[in-house]
Every structure is written in structure tokens, then in C-alpha cells.
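CORE FACILITY INTAKE
Project code: CF-77B
Contact: R.S. (postdoc)
Sample description: multi-component assembly, two entities in total
Requested service: structural model of the whole complex
Turnaround: standard
Below are the sequence entries exactly as provided by the requester. Do not edit them.
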Amino acid sequence: MSTVVDRPVTVTEVDGGGDPPKARERRRWGLTIVGSIVALIFLFPYLIMLIGAFKTRPEILRVPPTYLPQEWAPSNFLTMWDTPETPLPANLLSTVVISLCGTALALLAALPAAYYTARHNFRLKLPFLLLVLITQMLQPTVLASGLFREFITLEINDTWLTMILVNAAFNLSFAVWIMHSFFASVPKEIEEAAWLDGCSRGQSLTRIMLPLVWPGIVTAVIFTFIACWNEFAASLILLPTDTNQPLTVALTRFIGQYESAWQYVFAVSLIGIVPVVALFALIEKHLVSGLTAGGVK
Amino acid sequence: MTAPTTAHRSLRRRARRQSTLQALPWLAPALILIGGVVVYPVGYMIYTSFRDLTRFGTDKGWAGFDNYARVLELEHLPKVAMNTVIWVVGVVMLSIGLGLVLAQFLNKRFPGRKVLRMVIIVPWAASVVMTSTVFVYGLDPFYGIINRALVDLGLLDEPFGFLKSPVPGFLSAMAVAVFVSIPFTTFVFLAGLQAVPHDVLEAAQIDGAGRVQTYWRVVFPMLRGAVVVATIINVINVFNNLPILKTMTGAIPGYDADTTTSLMFKIIQADRQIDTASALSVLNFVVVVVVIGIYLRVVRPMRED
């Protein structure tokens, strides 16, 4: 890469070993073919989902099954909102409210902690970070009985608030971890210069640091949001009332012991998956840098 | 010289105490959240694991280690423990291995690489319940579309009830667990590969190292940090995973396709024995911490290269 050349160099040349450009070109397209097969493997469950969502109820239970719908039924996406199995509009609202509030709460708690631990040394720093790490090893279902009892005592059992708290707490460690490494990557001198110029701690955080670590915050927020959006096991235990349940739990209500409304299962799944995949695609660029920063720390 | 040093030392001590006090407002929101939603229930779990609770939650007093004894005497525990080992070791090793290969592949330049990277995040972003539900449908022996495809491709003679009996059901669940773990693992390794300097690779090539040699001698050792991170996070996630087993093998009677995590869930949901479930949870947590501790001792990620 570092060789000095006086003629313009194409990317292929620089990157190459000793093969002639044509052979390399061919090999690249070979990689594309392998890549397409890999892509197909990772997409096929979601293709089954997509196709299934457009089948009629009799067709999706037909033996043997059809690959493509013989009769396309986009009406599934309209009729699924009003079924005896589950109150879907309420479920969607639950997912949205729980995810938004859970993410906001997690950010509110993680941001100052990540900033302070990245910038300052104090005696209880290590114990604090260990405590945060331990929450990563636990899982809300393991603590279900204790949480259930606590929420009954507080008289907030079977409400959105319980899952907002649970989601925020159990995603805190990842948010702290990611943001901590982004804060730590900003040289301290930049901030010290701001203090000398008369900025307070809070001001230097909001005016100097936040713009610099913005990608880290966005990554942490989207990660947390997706984790809240997809949460299943704790909601299953902590939210018995159907109107409070999120989409992930509602979906299982379409699966009966004897007969299942698979077309609705898949239509609901699509509604649940498309927004988070879109969000995830937004931070795809930051994923690698975010994970590197985390790995180096 | 002595006086200023003493003054300096006491000043520093005061500064440290002050710094801990100063830290408090910044850490308070996180501490309150962790205290209320994690530490309190953990304490309650440990407490109930030593109590005798009825099915309706009435506390009948101190139970000593009775609950732990009951867990260890469970008839199906050896089978479930074995399953758990197979589940965690199998899924994590396959995810790490396939993740390494995939990351290496994605690190090459070819047309469509960006699209492939986007495609691979889909199983990561998608809800695990939703993904495993597709497999429950697809693997059905009657209307399952994956079963039909396998028959049409000549891989099966007739549709097979993958999720109807413990062994194939458990193996199918493992495959799905690997499938959903690969994207995260791959991205951790991609991040690691990005940190390998290009001139190091060139130097290895100039020194006459072949591709295989370059990989194992130069690239792989530099990925150690990434392997450690990926392994630990995967072990925690795979060990604690409930949704895949619940949706895919939850309907199989008995405990032959259970891990200790899904067993705990069954003890709470079906038997309503909170005290026994608490004891099992405590044991589960201790096992995870010990396993990770041993792993870190053996691998020593902080060691200088």
C-alpha cells in the first residue's frame, strides 16, 4: 500500500498479489456468487414469513404445502387487527410505548454513568462497573418471581411500567459499555480546554462531548430500542392481560394447540421485523467501529 | 520536604473521598434502576431459595438447603444438565467457527459485499421468537414448507416430524440458535479484523508466509480479544436463552429436550414451585459465573501479546 509510484494506480492493482487483473476480476464475481448463496441462507426464514403472510387460511394449512400462494391474500394485513385471538392494535401500542419509554429510561441512566466512568477515576469505579457487568449475566426471567412480588407490592403489576423498568435495567449494561468506550476515545485535553475557557462539567458534556460521541449514542439507543422491541420472555410472565402484551407475546396467541392462524403469525411478524431491520441498517456503519471500541477497552 | 508531602497526601485523600461523592449524582440513576430491578429480585431469589413456599406463595418458613436438595435430586436433572452442556458448547462453538469464516469472507472485496452485510443483520435485528416460529411452521410434517423442500430436493424420502420428538427437536433448536447467534459473532470478528494492520499482512507475505500460515500465525492471534468477547457474550446469551426452546420444543412432553433454563421456566409455569425454581436459578447463575471465570483464567485476554 505504501509503495511510491509515479503513475496513477487503480484499486485492483494496489490490492493485488501477482495475478493478472482478469483472473482477479473473475474471482471477485465468484465471491459474489458465494455471497448470494450465503444471503439466501440468511434470508430464507424471512422469505417463508413474507410468502406465508400472503396465503389464505385454508391454503397455509394445506397438505402438501404450496411454495407460492395460489391465491394472494393481502387482506390478511387488514383482517389481523380484528381477531378473537388477540387485540392487535393494543399490542402494537404496547410494543411502541414500552420500547420508546424503556429506551429513554435506559439512556437517561446510562449516559451520565458512561460519561463519568470514562472520564474520572474514583474508588468505587471498578465495583460499579462490575455491578453493571453482572446485570448482563442475569436475565429477567430468572428473576421473575422476585420481580412479580416487587411489582405487586408497588401496585404496578401487569402494567406497561413494569416492562419499561425491566427493559431499561437489563439493557443498561450494554448501553453503558458502548457509550463508555466512545467517551473514552475522546482525548481528555479537548474537554480540559473547554473547562479552562469557563465551561462547567454539564456544559462540556452537552456542548463538547455529545457532538463528538454522537455515533456511539445513536448506536446504543438503537441497540436498546431493538432489544426492548423484541423482548419476549419477561413480558410473557409479567404481563398476563392481553391488551398489555407486546407483539412478540401476542403473536404466540395465533398458534393454537390444534389449529394455528399462521398467516396472521407471519403478517404480525413482518410488522414487527421491518421497522427494526430498517433501524439496524441505519447503524450498520457504526456497528464495526462500535464493537472495535468496545473490544479494545 | 516532609511537610508538603504530608499535606499533599491528605489533600489527595480528601480529593478521593470527594471524588466518590461527586460521582454519585452521575451514577445515581443507573444505581437506582439496577438496585430496584436487578439487585432486589436477586436478593429475593436467594432468600426464597432457602424458604418453604406453597404453590400459592404462602411462606411456611425456613427450609435450609431443602430446595437445593430437591433440585439436585430431580430425576431428570442429569439428562437436563447434559443437554445444557451440549446446548451451550455446541451452539457457541459453531457460532464462533462459522462467524470466523463469514467475517473472513466479508472482509474481502467483491461486488455486493455491502448488500450481504445488510442481509446478515436481519436475523440479528429480528425477534428470536418470530424467527423460531417460522421454523416451527416450516418443519411441520404436514404443512411444513421446509419439509416439502427437503423432500423435493431428495434429501428426505418423506416429511419428517423434526419437532415431534426430543432428539431431532433439540438439534433443530440448536441449529436455530446458531443461526441467530452468527450475525453478532460475525460483526465482532469483522471489527477485530479491521484492527489488523495492513502492513503486518504485507510483511508476512514478503517473508514468504502462505495464506493459511498468515491466517493462523498472524491474523488469528490478533483476533484473540474479539474471540473472548464473542465467546463470553454468546455463552451468556445461549445459556439464558428461553424463546427458542420455548417455541420449538416446548410442546414436547417430558424433559428430554430441556436445558436448565427451560427447566426452571417449566418449574415456575407448570409446577408453580417458586422455591425450587429459585434454588435452580441460583445454581444456574453460579454456574455461569464460574464458567466465565475459568474461561477468563485460561484465555487471559488482558495478557500482553
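Facility notes:
- The two ends of chain B are 42 Å apart (CA to CA).
- The longest strand of chain B covers residues 59-62.
Invoice: internal transfer
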